Structure formats: C-alpha cells, structure tokens
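haha ok so turns out i had the wrong file open the whole time. this is the CORRECT one, sorry everyone. sequence first:
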Amino acid sequence: MKILFIDDDINILKSYKRIITSSEIDADFVDNPSNFYEYLNSDNYDLVIMDIAMKDINGLDLLSEMKDKGIDLNVILLTGLKDTAIQQIGKELGAIEILEKPISREMLLKTINKYRE
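then structure:
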C-alpha cells in the first residue's frame, strides 16, 4: 500500500512520517497542496490522507477537483474543526473517512490498516 499525505503544516507531516516510518508503510508527504498533481502523475497511490484546512487550497476543494478530473482514490480527510456541515460535505464528495485532529498514532494506523488491500 502506498499513501500520500497532504498537510501544509510541516510539523504535522513530520509526526505522520515518524508514525508511518516505524510501521514500514510506503508513503510520500506533501506540504504544499498545489504540488498534489505532480505526485499523482509520478506514482500510484492507494490512499490519500489530507487536511481539510490548508492555506493554498483546502482539502474539500482538492477532493472536489479530484472528483471532477475522474481521479478515483480513497481519501481520508483530517480536520481540527468540529463543524459537522464541513464533515458532511467531505462525505458527499467521497471521503471514506473524516477523522478529527489531533489523531493518535493508534487511530491513524488502525484507520490505515482498515483500508489495506
């Protein structure tokens, strides 16, 4: 399984990288959501895990663009927002999970393992 993590907070990405590296999961980490398509074109991913609230483009807009372009990937959205309307929009756009931040190591790995092929 190959995962693409997208979050504009480099410290968050570093924490995910520590968790993933210790679990021997193949992953790439993107701190600029504008570079998302470069990664998609260069590799095959089974899962995308991204934050909703990012500066350049939010995760909901990115998920909507993916859908519009026919990019069919499993997407897990992460949010620090308690807004159920935003979470509902994420589900309507096709997110397979929406997890609230901060997310524990155990919850992140449990969720990833749930979607392993």
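Residues 8 and 54 are 6 Å apart (CA to CA).
again sry for the mixup
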